[in-house]
Amino acid sequence: MLLKFAFKDFLDDRKFKNTTQKNIRNYQTLLGEFVNYCNDNEIVNVEDITQSHVRDYLIFCQDKGNQAGTINTKLLRIRAFLNYMVECEVIKSNPAQKVKFQKTDIKIDVFSDEQINQMLNFYRRIKGREKSYVAYRDYMLIVLVLGTGIRRGEIIGLKWTDVDFENLSVSVFGKSRRKESIPMTMKLTKELRAYQAFCKQHWGSVGEYVFTKRDYSQLTEFSIMQVFQYLRDKMNFTDVRVSPHTLRHTFCHRLAMSGMSAFAIQKLMRHQNIAVTMRYVAMWGNELREQNDKYNPLNNLDI
């Protein structure tokens, strides 16, 4: 089967299976690069792809400067495509299955208290001086992620009907497309109520979405990216990436540092697999050990 037709058939299958637009774009870009590489090297049929071709492509990506995490993501996409070809009986086995993932140095950035205050104070000054909706929106966006660990896609789709002020919770459609409830603290609830009142005054009524653009339309992936690009330029932090995911990691970091159980952290982060949660907890183990050494109850007992 010609590779270009197989690639199109695979994308059509993902669309039929209701894969998110974000993941489809991801396949189009990352898997498309592999398809182009094969065509450039005169590998035009799916049946002609070998384990060596996959490995050589990943080495090519490495030589271009791709980090281990990116290479592993590309390998995952290639495996998924070739698994689909096995299902369709185009090939008998997946030649990418025996290609090993690269080992990665796991380092997850989190914000310090000083950095968090710097970002929030920046927006406080703007919204206080200019009474700007955009400044208040971006301020509230940071507060919400720090208070719930909500994901970027969930921010975009969040509606006021998803916010339950009475029961102090926010409902979102998570990665598994299940509706999930996230608890809110009283402090976050008060912040959201004040923001809602501001939105009502600014727009004349409360719209459908919690966060909107300047023209009152729904946020997009690109507009979220612009928000954090602007903040990144203003803050000029050298040791941490300014992004919604770093805010989410900071939320998880503080939960772990507080001594919360891995099971409870998994529920709040909404990780499907507790192994993901344990990776975070293990990463911050030294800090937890320091906290334990400092606050352990045995320290004050005469034994």
Automatic annotation (TrEMBL):
What's the short name of a Pfam family annotated to this entry?
Phage_integrase
**What sections of the protein cross the membrane?**
none
Q: Where is the Tyr recombinase domain?
A: 106-293
Where in this chain does the record put each Core-binding (CB) domain? 1-86
Q: Which SUPFAM superfamilies match?
A: DNA breaking-rejoining enzymes (SSF56349)
Protein keywords? DNA recombination, DNA-binding
**InterPro entries, alphabetized:** CB, DNA_brk_join_enz, Integrase-like_cat_sf, Integrase_catalytic, Integrase_recombinase_N, SAM-like_dom, Tyrosine_recombinase_XerCD
PROSITE patterns for this protein: CB (PS51900), TYR_RECOMBINASE (PS51898)
Q: What's the family?
A: Belongs to the 'phage' integrase family.
- Name-wise, this protein is Integrase/recombinase XerD
Organism name: Paenibacillus aceris
